[in-house]
Structures are given as C-alpha cells and as structure tokens.
Give the backbone structure.
Amino acid sequence: MQIPKLTLIAAVLDINDRYTREHARRVAIYARRLAERISLNATAVENIRLGGLLHDIGKIGLSAKVLNNTHNRLSDDMLAEVRRHPLMGVAVLKDLDIPAAVIDFVQYHHEKMDGTGYPFGLKNDQIPLGARIIRVADCFDAITTDRPYQQHKSWIEAVAILRQISGTDLDPELVAAFIVDIKENLISPDD
Ligand SMILES: [Fe+2]
C-alpha cells in the first residue's frame, strides 16, 4: 500500500523542531511566489514549493548537540555535520513518491553562484533553477527571523544584504525579481 505523499511529508516535517518547520513553511511560500513571478509553469512552481518545504529535511539527521547549539560559531566537526544535511535530505526522500526535481532542489539548496557552496561547489547554471530560487527564499527568511545567535533584521536591511550577496552567492536575476516581490508584498507570507 502506498502512503500518500503529503502524509509522509507532514509526518517527517513534524519530527523537526518548531523553528525548522515554520522556516520551511515560509521558504516554500517565498519560493513559490518567486517561481510564479518569473513565469515558470505550474508543475515547476509546485516542485519548487515542495522543495522549499522539504529543503532542510536532512536536519532530522543532525545530533542534538548541533541542533541545540546556540553559539554563533560551530566547531569544524559540527560544521561538517551541518554540511551533510542536503545529502541526508536526499537519503530521506529518495524512496518516497516525490519528483526527482524536488530531490535535486533539496540536494543543491546550499550551492552558491561563485562555486563556494556545498556539497559539490557547483557554479551558476550548473545549479538547478529551483535550487537557486529556494536559496534566495532561504537566505531572506534566515535574515528576517530570530535565530538562536541573531536577532531578526527588517526586510529593508534584508534586501540590502541580498543585494550584497547577489552574484557571488545568489542568482542576480532572481534577487532582482525577489526584491520586487518583497516590495509589493512586504514580508507577509500569508497569501
Ligand atoms: Fe539548508
């Protein structure tokens, strides 16, 4: 018997801590809005939304020591563990009834345009478009929400930071489209 995909996803997401769950929900909404704004087709938009929801699913494999870390700096060992979460996510999802594109987005959501991301150091359009979209949404949400080591910044400050990392970390065309979207909708993800 096949378990419905969304039931499984909801169950897996529920394992995560509250912040991760809420973060995933917001990233999915920002990513969907950006995908719609650049006129991707309905299937691509839905895959990107799902990728946003699932992008950090591999964090269920992190040890409590790393998950509960409230310091700004992680030790090298802890950092190496965190950096495994995209591939852990692939391991969690690969046997579920989920489109391959969605699993790719999970796998590549920490790759950066200049090749300094992980796990593979892909550059520019070697990184799937959906993963680049999710990364913009992920960065924006990380900046505008309270983390254990950082107070949230306003969306105006966040836009300035996105501009600073546009081209090196983030896809510049996507950053430009995202900023238009944020200015129109402010930061409310409730639509
Ligand atoms: Fe992540």
Observations:
- The pocket of fe (ii) ion is lined by residues 55-56, 85, 109-110 (CB under 6 Å).
